[in-house]
Amino acid sequence: MTNSNGKITTVTLGSGGPEVGVQGLGCMGMSEFYGATDEAAARDTLEAALAAGVTLFDTADVYGRGANEEFLRPFVTAHRDEITLATKFAIVRTDDPQYRGIRNDPAYVRECVEGSLRRLGVEAIDLYYMHRRDPAVPLAESVGAMAELVAEGKVRHLGLSEVTGAELREAHAVHPIAALQSEWSLFSRGVERSAVPAAAELGVALVPYSPLGRGFLTGAFADAERELPADDFRRYQPRMVGDAAVANTALLEPVKKLAASHGATPAQIALAWVQQRAAVHGLTVVPIPGTRKRSRLEENVAATRIVLSEEELALLEPIAGRVVGSRYLDMSATSDSRE
């Protein structure tokens, strides 16, 4: 998936959506959640991504409580016409580090977009997502408020995150949805139950987050609680600690074998699998692996050149069904809880 100029190829997000590189970059970890960040290295990674043809850069107002958007501002300013900028609203944080609320009401939508525009230093956001769904607020109200932002020129395209197929259809009837961002990886395939078929039917692109299972699929660590810093949120992911981690590490053996046969890394095999979901399900797929390091960025982008055979895909097929432990300690805000 590379052009003659060596950059990754491009695809269109949704019907009439923006054209982006077939792999994007998740920027969350550049501000928090995964331990200390080297800001200079992170900025170098942003530049390396763009040079490789990565043009979709993903953030959210909740990452660092606005700090991630502010961090991206100089890069966005320098390359505004070259990139597609995505950010999100809906998750509410307070001074309590454990608290996570959700708001989808129209007043909050407008409050959030103004804050993101200010922090990012832009007049319009290319792709604006509702980060999580609050079932207490009718989708017509939330998406209707988002649609008003498009009419006002503050947002160019709309996205949703962690919604079911039925919710995607309902929202799309109010205003075209360009992209659905949900977790999708060798370990997490719940999105295939209803959201993927709905997206394929509606022409909505899938933007998988955590396509590397937050690093677990790379083999970089085997037990988050024992190996990762105290401020790394993966220490609280059920499938990454204790007996679950032991069982799940064993599931990586076929990934490692395929990596060896391709002269690749386990991360590249995991990403290649996600990229090939496009052909399997008949829709556009643009994963957004997150990294703060140029070397990892280059490794991830190189995965777009790997094509797995039907036999190789079959070896990986059973993995998700054998995973022990849930994606989050509290799954109530995910689409899985509403299927």
- Characterize the largest beta sheet: strand count, sense, and whether it forms a barrel: 7 strands, parallel
Q: For the CA atoms, what is the radius of gyration?
A: 19 Å
**Helix amount:** 25-40%
Query: Low-confidence segments, ≥5 residues, pLDDT <50?
Result: none
- Please trace the helix and strand order, writing H or E for each element: EEEHEHEEEHEHEHEHEHHHHHHH
Strand adjacency order, main sheet: 3-4-5-8-9-10-11
How many beta-strand segments? 11
**Distance between termini?**
34 Å
Instruction: Figure out the total of helices.
Output: 13
Strand content: 5-15%
Average of per-residue pLDDT values: 94
Structural class label? alpha/beta
Principal-axes shape call: globular
The gist of it:
The chain is 37% helix and 14% strand. With 339 residues, the protein is an alpha/beta fold.
How does this structure look, described?
Helices cover 37% and strands 14% of the residues. The longest helix has 15 residues, at 106-120. It has helices spanning 39-51, 67-78, 106-120, 139-151, 165-174, 195-202, 224-227, 242-250, 253-262, 266-275, 277-281, 294-302, 310-316, and strands at 10-12, 19-21, 25-26, 56-58, 84-89, 91-92, 101-102, 125-130, 155-161, 177-183, 205-209. Helix 4 (139-151) links the parallel strand 8 (125-130) and strand 9. Helix 4 crosses helix 5 (165-174). Strands 3-4-5-8-9-10-11 form a 7-stranded parallel β-sheet, with helices on one face. A two-stranded antiparallel ribbon has the order 1-2. The protein has a two-stranded antiparallel sheet with strand order 6-7. The protein is of the alpha/beta class and 339 residues long. The radius of gyration is 19 Å and the shape is globular. The protein has 13 helices and 11 strands.
